[in-house]
Write a structure and sequence with these properties.
single chain; 170 residues; mainly alpha; Protein Binding, DinI Protein, Chain A; 2 strands; 72% helix; rod-shaped
Length: 170
Amino acid sequence: MRKLTLFLTILFFAAIVNAQEKYAYVNLIKVMNESKTGQKLKKEIEDKFEFFKAKAQKIEKEIKEIQKQLESPLLSDKAKSEKQAKIRELQRQLQQLTIDAQQQLNQMKQEYEKKLIEKIKLAAKEYTDKEGIDIIFTNGMYGAVLYSDNKIDITDKIISLLDGEKNEVK
């Protein structure tokens, strides 16, 4: 029985070796970070982050100015009360801005990742059709590879195909 199992195992692995399937590997994280398309999308997110950061800094500066005014002994109780109310309102605005920024940036990131993954899939399909590749493995949350030899890594070729696109990301 052991000999039969051993023989079938050897036969199975021999069949796999002789299948001569072509396969390749793409590092999605590298494509996302190094391709022109990925860098453009990343820049748009960073620009949006800087926009929110500037708005937050403006509100924080206004809060500090009002706090300095509160230190004046010449302010009436009514004026102090109004300034404290203004500080509370600005703090509320700052908190809401932070929440809105997080939501918008997360949504933007998800949309851009989805758009980029679709473009990468199209570039990979073009490559597989041209090169006769049967399977392309990937890494990250979109797939899994325990080991990959650099000779099957076509990441740079996918970046080139993706960057060669005439279509701009919208």
